[in-house]
Amino acid sequence: MTDNQPSGALVPASTRQEVGLDIAAVVTSVVPWLGGPVSVVLGGMAAGRRYKRVSEALGGLAKDLKNFKNEASELYVKTEDFEDLLGKTLWEVAEERHEEKRRVYRAFLLDLITSPGQPYDDQVRVLRTLELLQPDHFRILKALRAQPEGGNGITGSPLQTLRGRLPSMQETLISDLVEQLNDLRVTSMTSLRTMMTFGGAQDLRHSITKYGERFLAYVLKADELESSAA
If I label 35, which of 28, 72, 143, 229 is the partner at 20 to 30 A Cα–Cα? Predict the structure, then answer.
């Protein structure tokens, strides 16, 4: 290590730069118009396992966009707004240990590119909320989205329904996760323990807010990406 090399560096700076260029080259070879922003963002990112996570996410994104053609998207990825959002997202990918959530970030980037036009501040808000969500929150959202189940029950509660759909989760954890989703305006459930008709307790789709539908869309897209890769 040279005298001016930071002691906490994972690999020499030159190696980080070379790896970044390698990743950017792969993306550029598949989606030429996306390579420039990727190169800029990767310039200052750490190496090691973080680079591996970013490389996997970008490789998957390049595959997703291989046959995608859209002039508005190609213009958008050249903007400062996109470069900033790409940088923020890839830093989160680099730090995220859960593969499932990294796929959700990939779905966020895919939507960002293929459906340009959302205000920058709105996208930043979505990204900040996404940073606070974990795989267990995603499971709650999918359970809330599930179609009502048949049955001969007379009464029930939302908590009983969720407990049945998520048998591996304790009631206290379900309650905590729903409360967190409520605080983030992703869901709007007033009381999990309120007794109601069996049919009403089974249909919980209305409890996902319009804002929450965006995150559910990313989660479902991430599931689709996983299935297509299998």
Answer: 229
Q: What are phi and psi of 208, to 5 degrees?
A: -85, 120
- pLDDT of res. 35: 74
Residues 178, 189: Cα–Cα separation, whole Å = 8
Q: What angle do CA 7, 8, 13 make, to 5 degrees?
A: 85
C-alpha to C-alpha distance for 192 and 210, rounded to whole angstroms: 20
Residues 27/56, Cβ–Cβ less than 8 Å: no
The structure tokens listed for 12 are 């020499």
Name beta bridge partners: 155: 197
Q: Provide mean pLDDT across the span 126-154.
A: 92
CA separation (Å) from 189 to 138, 157, 163? 16, 12, 15
pTM of the model: 0.78
Each domain of the chain, given as residue ranges in start order, spans 13-130, 136-215
pLDDT at 4 over 70: no
